[in-house]
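Suppose a colleague, Dr. K., hands you the sequence of a protein chain of 96 amino acids and asks what its three-dimensional shape might be. Before reaching for any lab equipment, you can write down a predicted structure in token form. Begin with the sequence itself:
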Amino acid sequence: MVAVIPAEGMGAGPVGPPPLIVFLLGKENAIAERITTRINEQIRISPLRVIGAGGEQLGILPVDQALAKARESELDLVEVAPNERPPVCRIMDFGK
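The predicted structure, expressed as tokens, is then:
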């Protein structure tokens, strides 16, 4: 079982919402893992594999071009698979 709660005392950074703390429950000792999801200008690595808002593959793009496509749609560029090479980002409404 997993519980997700906002991190206490950790306000929003210069860009984006505050990080979340995830607790893996059911263990003898609770394990806390800090999760930070990078969005928009927080994403610095280039190039990126980009998935469009409708789920279509937009290809491997430089980060500035991916951000431009997200802005054209008035949506956010969200890193969904940071450990892949190249990292995978999706154009979506991060607030939803």
